[in-house]
């Protein structure tokens, strides 16, 4: 009887364990899936944010560069206008000096005309008085007829000479007045040009101030964006660490790992390496060490499992469409940037060494069609070379 109770207890305990297992495993898978989804969503968000920030920073740098070019352009134009104004001021000063000299000459000419007219008036008055006197007494005072003729001729010559002098003086005065008017017209034109150039200089000075303000605003915005970018990059590194944990997580307890030197080459016939394991790069301003091998190949080239294992799949922000194969609790290979996964390659599927798992593409953070082939041991990237067939290793080239 006691033996039967003992058997019943054991069976009951086994049933309880099995029931708990059936409940816990799905729950654990849900938690893992939710965690993977959360990591993917956060990485996608951070990727978009980093791209947007870099785009905004680049746009601000472009705006600042354009504003600086505008400022330099306006400064050059303002300097040219300033030089024109200086040259105009010299012309204006010269024309004013010419005008003053011409006005002085004109004043002297007017004085000469007035003096000549006054002298002629005095002579005419004298002649008039002479005419009013007794002509006979004048003539009687002369010694002979030749003196009489000479006196008459002299009177006529004096009158004509004075008339000619006055006429010439008046003509010269008119010419100088005309020259002074021309100088004044030129001076007025130069003054108008000076006013226009000074107005242009003020406009250019305002444009320079506005352009410099744009430069300062763009640079201030860039500094703020750089601060945000640095914070976002720190978040990115934290999520990348979560990605490493994701890679390290095992999809099964079985050990499918092959012995060293027995890994199958995932793209037979393509042995050129465009980026080797351990190469240092800068991604989104963050120093990054390349985690695997980049193998260029045409889009659609078949990709094969390097060893047997359990599949898990995801769409990672950096690796794009990819496949993770857990070969043991410690060894995981990752195949990134696929154009698509092969039919039937889904989470939990067991694949064999050399089985088709997908096709070469350029999804995720990629600049061309290639396969990112990565080996992680206990969550840390490791060189896959020691696991390759020596014949394959000898065919690799750069």
Features:
PcsB_CC, 398 residues, 9-stranded antiparallel beta sheet, signal, disordered N terminus, alpha+beta, metalloendopeptidase activity, Peptidoglycan DD-metalloendopeptidase family protein, two-stranded antiparallel sheet, single chain
In short:
This protein is α+β, with helices and mostly antiparallel strands and 398 residues long. Helices cover 62% and strands 15% of the residues. Strands 3, 4, 5, 6, 7, 8, 9, 10 and 11 form a nine-stranded antiparallel beta sheet that branches. Strands 1-2 form a two-stranded antiparallel ribbon.
How does this model look, in words?
- Mean pLDDT is 76; it is low at 3-8 and 13-34.
- The radius of gyration is 53 Å and the shape is rod-shaped.
- Helices cover 62% and strands 15% of the residues.
- Helix 1 runs antiparallel to helix 3.
- Strand 5 and strand 6 (320-326) form a beta hairpin.
- It has helices at residues 2-132, 135-140, 145-248, 390-393; strands at 280-283, 286-289, 292-296, 302-304, 309-316, 320-326, 331-341, 350-351, 356-360, 370-377, 380-382.
């Amino acid at each position: 009887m006691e033996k039967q109770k003992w058997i019943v207890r054991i069976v009951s305990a086994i049933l309880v364990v099995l029931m708990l297992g059936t409940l816990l495993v799905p729950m654990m898978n849900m938690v893992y899936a939710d965690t993977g989804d959360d990591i993917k969503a956060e990485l996608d968000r951070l990727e978009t944010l980093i791209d947007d920030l870099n785009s905004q920073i680049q746009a601000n740098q472009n705006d600042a560069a354009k504003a600086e070019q505008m400022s330099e352009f306006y400064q050059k134009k303002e300097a040219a206008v300033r030089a024109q104004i200086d040259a105009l001021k010299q012309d204006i000063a010269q024309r004013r000096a010419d005008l003053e000299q011409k006005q002085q000459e004109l004043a002297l000419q007017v004085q000469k005309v007035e003096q000549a007219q006054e002298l002629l008036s005095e002579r005419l008055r004298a002649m008039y008085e002479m005419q009013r006197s007794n002509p006979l007494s004048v003539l009687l005072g002369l010694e002979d007829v030749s003196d009489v003729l000479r006196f008459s001729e002299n009177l006529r010559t004096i009158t004509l000479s004075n008339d000619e002098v006055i006429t010439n003086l008046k003509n010269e005065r008119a010419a100088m007045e005309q020259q002074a008017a021309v100088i004044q017209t030129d001076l007025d034109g130069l003054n108008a040009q000076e006013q226009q150039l000074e107005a242009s200089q003020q406009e250019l000075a305002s444009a320079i101030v506005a352009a410099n303000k744009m430069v300062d605003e763009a640079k201030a915005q860039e500094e703020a964006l750089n601060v945000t970018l640095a914070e976002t990059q720190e978040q990115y590194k934290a999520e990348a660490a979560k990605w490493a944990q994701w890679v390290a997580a095992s999809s099964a307890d079985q050990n499918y790992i092959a012995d060293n030197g027995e890994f199958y080459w995932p793209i037979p016939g393509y042995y050129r390496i465009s980026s080797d394991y351990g190469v240092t790069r800068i991604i989104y301003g963050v120093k990054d060490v390349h985690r695997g091998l980049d193998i260029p190949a045409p889009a659609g080239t078949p990709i094969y499992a390097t060893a047997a294992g359990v599949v898990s799949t995801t769409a990672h922000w950096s690796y794009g469409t990819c496949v993770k194969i857990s070969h043991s609790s410690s060894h995981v290979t990752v195949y990134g940037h696929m154009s698509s996964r092969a039919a039937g390659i889904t989470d939990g599927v067991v694949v064999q060494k050399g089985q088709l798992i997908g096709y070469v593409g350029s999804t995720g953070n990629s600049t061309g069609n290639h396969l990112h082939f990565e080996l992680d041991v206990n969550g840390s990237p490791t060189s896959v070379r020691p696991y390759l067939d020596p014949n394959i290793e000898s065919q690799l080239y750069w």
